[in-house]
Amino acid sequence: MNILLKYFPELTEDQIEKFDKLQSLYTDWNAKINVISRKDLDALYERHVLHSLGIAKIQSFKAGSHVMDVGTGGGFPGIPLAILFPETQFYLCDVIAKKIKVVNAVVEALELTNVKAEQKRAGTFDTQFDFIISRAVTKMTDFVKWVRPNIKKKSDHEFKNGILYLKGGDLTEELASFTTIQQFELSNYFEEEFFETKKVVYLPMKYKG
Fold this sequence. Notes:
single chain, alpha/beta, 7-stranded mixed sheet
């Protein structure tokens, strides 16, 4: 928890309490359904929670806005961001049922009323969102094809509506075809070694459909 307070010192008591519960919740569930590697579970707050919150260093979400987490896995980055932005609505989806089972259990235990999670594949529904978030589920070219129709037309944030994608490593080749993309190095915000190669990739999306 200290690492979160280091970078997000303005957390409320309720947020601190919710974040604090994550370790025991994921430890218990991971023993039943493996959604996080043991190595990463031991470093949950750095490698999963703080990593997820890296998106918040780039863009804060306004009250009443809608955000979709595609390929959420065990609930990252969606659940930490939902705790941080309690007045923003989050929709978490993944194709693997057992992962959504864990997500829903964590959401229920934390009493997160701003989260809905479903077993569903991206590109199979018509709902639209201000931002699509994810953590390296596939190449950006494929990801854009999946989620392009789900971007709202009207933008109300500092950044235009689009994709906020957590990625790592050298992305020069993968992102070469995107002329409007921006990369934000998380090492500029977090000093831990883990974040040296981690980035938030932002791609504004033109409305289609």
